[in-house]
């Protein structure tokens, strides 16, 4: 066999197609560079890069299909069950009389030490918990609301009863805790004679305040259906009847929205009389 | 020349040439469905390449940052650094949006390719012995891919992803006993905590990708070690692999596939908008958007959350909230079932042998029925995740649609599974080659219970080391200093060449004996004639020869005519 055999001639047209593909690819690459240099336009950049890659891919695919032998080769498969003699030989090496795995007592002690080390290594995971060492269940239950906390609007102004006209929903936040994830609530004015069930947190002339967080999975229930007096969650379509103490009426939620007891402060602004009637948001393992 | 000497120098020190020769000659069987895993692999490569670029611009922090830049509606607003840097990356960093969108599309296609690959493995029985281990690795990678998709989706701290994260937090919180503790451990506080985004970031760019890279390596190493399974066909046995060689054919094709994947991903990333976070706005605990749909690969979970009725239970006075069942239980059962399937099938079916030949989907009607049932179930869940949009499109009340879907999710999978089971059985028992060729009689026969001797016989039939067919033989011949062999089945018109040359006749005989045990060996004097060209090529060549002959004749006649006229042979006008 000569070491440098002649390269066989390509079938007619194949070389041309491959070269054309590679040239197209180069054009795409140049197009990308130019587009980037001129200020970068996402569609042009993406399109040019796609052409560059597609050109290369086409060229290589034609090369692989037309210029090299394709199919019809066989390779033997040795199987995966080694001959018993070989297995026995390996086992003998591993379990020789002086093999470490034969010293059971030492192994037990080693196992004990490793277990202790492994358990000790788990302790730093504790640092992932919140630094203030409060129980998560307790933190989950408590919100920034409490007796005397004033209701603020989204703009940060204290809320007067007159700021909640009939038929609108106003988002409210606790003073001093507006960024808290579990605090958002809404105030809405309903006609008291339409209540089918009195609000558990009470009301001020039909003005009621409920947690904004769905009791199913915690999404804010932002959609107010005025005529029906219902709040709808955009995430999973749970629906709560505000006229029946925010009881769930449709969708996957099972518990009513917790209410917020409110009163009128001496300064004329609304304030809370305590925390929500139940932990807001999604349910969790807790004694109710 | 330099390369040649370098290669020699390396080989003189590491003795790589025997290994390399064997590796280059490695045979991969040909089937389009064997490319699906490669698509997943190459999307993963694209994810890493684009992802590294993104980390250079993304600021994983929930600290306040004022956005100043080209996107006017948000110019001058204070948001989290994560959100502000994502908007800056999309609007103010050149090629930033392209890379970010390509990254997102790669993630979607990565998970999709894994899923389709898994379905292929499932229906062809490629998870059977000896490949159960690789199935476990693969399912783990699917799990990690889902996790990484979700963490990546949540990091920009936009309103839509914030809602998604809140839902996941609620699902984790629903775990009895430890739910709140798990959330506190993960987030370092109540949702939304300041630790949240840095932790998501580390998980997304370091922890999960590192494990994924390790598992991808293990996955591929096992494929190389165990060799690829193949569909049954002429010359294909449990003892060989028939296909194309790794070099040169598969190298070119696989690189071409990689580039195709990149081309599609960059075309999508450049031309098709995805996750425009600047439109959603930054996350705020009291805000939500509608409609709110997650990325497609978590849609089944979202659909299950929508579908599950408001049932909550109390254990010893403690609440087990509704999301626990569709979220934790369904997810857990799904992955447990995936992990357990190869072993379940082995225990229930009693098939403990190793398989290198794949099933056709019809070969195992029970597996077919179970698979179609599961796929239908998840398809209904995915549809449910868009029930609000669907209801608006169909102009029906969303709760009516929800009730319908609650029925469908139970009924449809059973019907589809039963139908698939029957069709598979009809195809297997009858002699229809395709679904379209099934007759009513085939279907009627499929409804009869299995008589032992049909399914059982096929499963219990021992593998014949050598199918005793006349005309089958192995031909060996010397080719210069080396030996080659090929398998020939003359009546069937099959000739398959061994994938590599070996140094001695014994070696050649040994590998032929392994690949085709029991088939007679014949020494032939020289290399067999080149394979006969196909019919089209023969016709083309014949026509080409004729055309050549005719043109020569015409040329000769013309020359004679010219000479007779006394002019010069070739006119100057020709030049």
Account of the protein in words:
The complex is a heterodimer of chains A (about 290) and B (about 575). Chain A is of the alpha+beta class and about 290 residues long. Among the domains of chain A are: about 15-65; about 140-290, Rieske [2Fe-2S] iron-sulphur domain (Rieske Iron-sulfur Protein). The model of chain A has no long low-confidence stretch (mean pLDDT about 90). Chain A starts with 13 loop residues before the first helix and ends in a 16-residue tail after the last strand. In chain A, strand 8 (about 240) and strand 9 (about 245-250) form a beta hairpin. Helices cover about 30% and strands about 15% of the residues of chain A. Chain B is of the alpha+beta class and about 575 residues long. Helices cover about 60% and strands about 10% of the residues of chain B. Chain B contains 20 helices and 10 strands. Chain B has a 4-stranded mixed β-sheet, covered by helices on one side. The interface between A and B is large, with 87 and 113 residues.
- Count helical runs of chain B: 20
Radius of gyration of chain A: 36 Å
| Secondary structure: number of strands of chain A | 11
Report the end-to-end length of chain B measured between terminal Cα atoms.
43 Å
Shape of chain B: globular
- For the termini of chain A, the CA-CA separation is 88 Å
Any idea how many domains of chain B? 4
Q: Helix tally of chain A?
A: 5
- Kindly state the percentage of residues in helix of chain B: 55-70%
Key terms for this structure?
heterodimer; A: 288 residues; alpha+beta; Rieske Iron-sulfur Protein; 4-stranded antiparallel beta sheet; 5 helices; 11 strands; 30% helix; B: 575 residues; Cytochrome Bc1 Complex, Chain C; 4 domains; 4-stranded mixed beta sheet; two-stranded antiparallel sheet; 20 helices; globular
């Amino acid at each position: 066999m000569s070491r440098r055999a002649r390269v066989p001639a390509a079938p007619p047209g194949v070389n041309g197609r491959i070269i054309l593909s590679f040239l197209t690819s180069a054009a795409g690459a140049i197009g990308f560079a130019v587009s980037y240099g001129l200020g970068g336009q996402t569609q042009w950049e993406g399109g040019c890069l796609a052409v560059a890659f597609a050109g290369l891919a086409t060229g290589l695919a034609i090369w692989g299909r037309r210029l090299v032998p394709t199919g019809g080769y066989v390779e033997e498969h040795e199987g995966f069950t080694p001959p018993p003699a070989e297995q026995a030989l390996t086992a003998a090496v591993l379990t020789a009389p002086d093999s470490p795995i034969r010293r059971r007592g030492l192994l037990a002690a080693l196992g004990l030490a490793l277990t202790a080390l492994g358990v000790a290594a788990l302790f730093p995971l504790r640092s992932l918990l919140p630094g203030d060492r409060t129980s998560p269940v307790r933190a989950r239950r408590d919100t920034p609301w409490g007796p005397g906390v004033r209701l603020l609007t989204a703009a940060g102004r204290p809320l007067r009863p007159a700021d909640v006209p009939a038929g609108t929903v106003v988002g409210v936040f606790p003073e001093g805790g507006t960024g808290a994830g579990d605090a958002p609530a809404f105030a809405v004015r309903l006609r008291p004679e339409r209540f089918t069930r009195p609000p558990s947190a009470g009301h001020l002339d039909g003005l009621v305040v409920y947690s904004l967080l769905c009791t199913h999975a915690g999404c804010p229930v932002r959609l107010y259906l005025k005529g029906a007096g219902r709040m709808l969650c955009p995430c999973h379509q749970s629906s709560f009847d505000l006229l029946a103490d925010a009881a769930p009426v449709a969708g996957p939620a099972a518990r009513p929205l917790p209410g917020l007891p409110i009163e009128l402060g001496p300064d004329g602004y609304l304030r809370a009389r305590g925390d929500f009637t139940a932990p807001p948001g999604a349910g969790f393992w807790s004694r109710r | 020349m330099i390369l040649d000497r370098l290669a020699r120098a390396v080989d003189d020190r590491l003795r790589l040439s025997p290994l390399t020769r064997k590796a280059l000659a490695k045979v991969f069987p040909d089937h389009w469905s064997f490319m699906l895993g490669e698509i997943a692999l190459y999307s993963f490569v694209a994810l890493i390449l684009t992802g590294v670029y993104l980390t250079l611009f993304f600021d994983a922090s929930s600290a306040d940052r004022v956005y100043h830049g080209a996107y006017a509606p948000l110019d001058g607003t204070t948001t989290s650094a994560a959100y502000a840097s994502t908007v800056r990356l999309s609007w103010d960093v050149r090629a930033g949006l392209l890379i970010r969108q390509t990254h997102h599309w790669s993630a979607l296609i990565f998970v999709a390719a894994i899923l389709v690959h898994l379905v292929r493995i499932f229906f062809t029985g490629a998870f059977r012995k000896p490949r159960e281990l690789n199935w476990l690795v693969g399912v783990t990678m699917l799990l990690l891919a889902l996790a990484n998709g979700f963490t990546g989706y949540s990091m920009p701290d936009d309103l839509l992803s914030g809602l998604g994260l809140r839902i996941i937090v609620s699902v984790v919180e629903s775990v009895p006993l430890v739910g709140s503790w798990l959330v506190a451990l993960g987030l370092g506080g109540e949702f939304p905590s300041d630790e949240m985004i840095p932790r998501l970031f580390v998980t997304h760019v370091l922890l999960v990708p590192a494990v994924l890279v390790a598992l991808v390596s293990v996955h591929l190493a096992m494929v190389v070690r165990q060799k690829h399974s193949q569909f049954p066909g002429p010359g294909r046995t449990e003892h060989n692999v028939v296909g194309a060689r790794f070099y040169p054919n598969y190298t070119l094709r696989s690189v071409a596939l990689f580039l195709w994947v990149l081309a599609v991903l960059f075309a999508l990333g450049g031309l098709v908008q995805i996750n425009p976070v600047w439109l959603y706005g930054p996350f705020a605990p009291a805000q939500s958007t509608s409609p709110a749909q997650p990325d497609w690969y978590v849609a089944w979970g979202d659909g299950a959350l929508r579908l599950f009725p408001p049932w909550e239970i109390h254990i010893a006075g403690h609440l087990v909230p509704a999301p626990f069942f569709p979220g934790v239980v369904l997810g857990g059962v799904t992955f447990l079932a995936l992990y357990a399937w190869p072993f379940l099938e082995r225990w229930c079916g009693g098939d403990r042998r190793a398989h290198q030949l794949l099933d056709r989907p019809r070969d195992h009607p029970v597996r077919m029925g179970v698979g179609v049932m599961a796929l239908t179930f998840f398809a209904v869940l995915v549809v449910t995740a868009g029930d609000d949009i669907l209801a608006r499109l169909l102009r029906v009340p969303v709760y009516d649609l929800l009730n319908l879907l609650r029925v469908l999710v139970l009924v449809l999978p059973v019907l589809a599974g039963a139908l698939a089971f029957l069709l598979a059985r009809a195809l297997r028992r009858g002699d229809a080659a395709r679904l379209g060729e099934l007759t009513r009689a085939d279907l009627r026969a499929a409804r009869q219970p299995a008589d032992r001797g049909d399914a059982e016989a096929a499963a219990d039939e021992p593998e014949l080391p050598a199918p005793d067919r006349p005309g089958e033989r192995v031909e060996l011949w010397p080719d210069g200093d080396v030996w080659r062999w090929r398998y020939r089945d003359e009546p069937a018109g099959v000739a398959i060449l061994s994938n590599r040359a070996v140094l001695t006749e014994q070696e050649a005989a040994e590998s032929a004996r392994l690949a085709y045990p029991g088939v007679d060996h014949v020494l032939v004097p020289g290399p067999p004639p080149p394979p006969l060209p196909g019919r089209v090529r023969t016709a083309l060549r014949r026509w080409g020869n004729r055309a050549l002959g005719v043109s020569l004749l015409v040329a000769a006649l013309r020359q004679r005519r010219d000479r007779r006229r006394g002019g010069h042979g070739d006119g100057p006008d020709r030049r």
